[in-house]
Amino acid sequence: MSPGFLFAVLSFAGLIGVMVRGFLAGGPRIAIGLGVAIGIPVCTSLILFETLGWFSWGLPLLMAAGLAFGFGVARARLRSPAYRWLVTLPGSAFGAAGWLAIPWATLVLLGFDPWLPWLPFAIAAVSTFRSLQFRSEELDIVLDQRPVEGLRPVGHGAARTSRPLRVVQITDPHLGPFMSVARLRAACQRAVDRNPDLILLTGDYLTYESNNQKNVLEEALEPLQAMPGRVFAIRGNHDLEVTEQVALAMEHNGIPLLIDESVMVDTAAGPVQIVGLDFCYQHRKRSMEAVLNANPRVGGALRLILLHDPAAFGDLPVGQADLTLSGHTHGGQVGLLDLGHPWTIVRALGIPDHGLWGRGPDRLYVHRGTGHYGFPIRVGVPAEESLLRVHLPAALRGAR
User: Fold this and answer.
1) 9 and 31 fall within a common domain
2) Pairing, β 261-267 against β 231-233
3) Cβ atoms within 10 Å of 61's Cβ, excluding its own
4) In whole angstroms, what is the distance from residue 263 CA to residue 275 CA?
5) Are residues 34 and 93 in the same domain?
6) Same domain for 107 and 158?
7) One domain, residues 143 and 110
8) pLDDT at 159
9) Domain residues for 41?
10) For residues 30 and 23, is the Cβ–Cβ distance under 8 A?
């Protein structure tokens, strides 16, 4: 029996075990989901095994971690640091590499000898550790209200006010495989240490792994208690699965959860009207228009809208927001930002993915995310930890 054949037999036996465990834990939906998520990497890895040369020695270890990770997901919960380093990180790298390797595996099946077959595994290894890092930035956003045709990325502009509004946004932390309670606490503490005028949370706080664990979100957000009256939150799509848990966490930390409502805040940069739009699956445009009509613009105040999904920005009536803050896309998650190019998979689909966008006089800032979820790792798109300096429209500067 050849090593390759034995490796294949053990790999498929492990995959079947993962699917059976998923079926017992959550029924056919979980079993099928794990079968696809883990099965594709298993298949592509086996197809490429003979082409990897010296690199093939590490593949069984990576696959073992991937199968163990899949087996653990079937009984989802937040894990210890040791589990994360020994199972979660290498297992995530294996899963991501297997999906990235589909073009190489396809070439092998067609009879070609692919170039650098180890490359997707190397990219996944580097990106796994990159997924644990934040890119700390300070960005100026000039709300010049210059008309923009269509919806497209725009430049940040040159600073124009001596005292801009200072904002830190936290979005999509996704407590789970890559985001521990300690890691999110540290991110919240760094946000507080920057002493911004506002800290704004734009949704997706929990995941499948943390949904059933009480008090984890309360504990992670506790550093934000140091800024009463300056922290506000909305819900994302994942939060609609655990509405009570999210509400209790915000209440515990004194953070108003804006659900289709607005609040006025006096800041050192002037008054700000914050409108929090709840995540909406159906009749989105009609729902947002109703909320905005019920919360009209306040004269002399910056109108700031919190909207989890940037794809919904196009449904906002033009002129309703000076600035909208969103997340949801994780910055595109797979792209070329680390190479200095703005392209991501999400942008290729025509969806605002990261950075500043304009439509008419309105501006949208899409945060790359504090964490990520779904695809196992970030590839070329770092997590974001930014301080935004928002320079006000001329009409508001003149009114102050």
Assistant:
1) yes
2) unpaired
3) 11
4) 7
5) yes
6) no
7) no
8) 66
9) 3-129
10) yes
Sheet with 231-233, edge to edge strand ranges:
134-142, 383-391, 165-170, 198-201, 231-233
**33 vs 393: which has the higher pLDDT:** 33
Assess contact for 200 and 274: CB atoms under 8 A. yes
194 and 153 in a common domain: yes
Residue range 206-229: mean pLDDT, rounded: 94
249 and 384 together in one domain: yes
Residue entry with tokens 């990180």: 89
Q: What's the mean pLDDT when you consider all of the chain?
A: 93
Verify that 120 and 242 share a domain, yes or no. no
CATH of the domain at 167: 3.60.21.10
Tally of structural domains, the chain: 2
Domain final residue, candidates 129, 163, 188: 129
pTM of the model: 0.94
Last residue of a domain, one of 84, 109, 129: 129
The CB-based long-range contact list for 46-49 (8 Å cut-off, 24+ gap) reads: 46/4, 46/7, 46/8, 46/11, 47/105, 47/108, 47/109, 48/101, 48/104, 48/105, 48/108, 48/114, 48/117, 49/4, 49/7
Counting every residue written for the chain, the total comes to 400
Question: Mind listing the pLDDT tens digit for each residue in 294-322?
Answer: 999 999 999 999 999 999 999 999 999 99
- List helix spans (H) across 51-167: 59-73, 81-83, 89-100, 102-109, 119-130
DSSP, collapsed to helix, strand or coil, labels residue 156 as: coil
| Burial 188-207, CB ≥16 within 10 A → b, else e | beebbeeebbbbbbbbbbbb
Q: How many CB atoms within 10 Å of residue 276?
A: 27
> Cα–Cα distance between 325 and 397 in angstroms, integer?
21
C-beta of residue 300 within 8 angstroms of C-beta of residue 271? yes
Question: In this structure, which amino acid lies at residue 241?
Answer: E
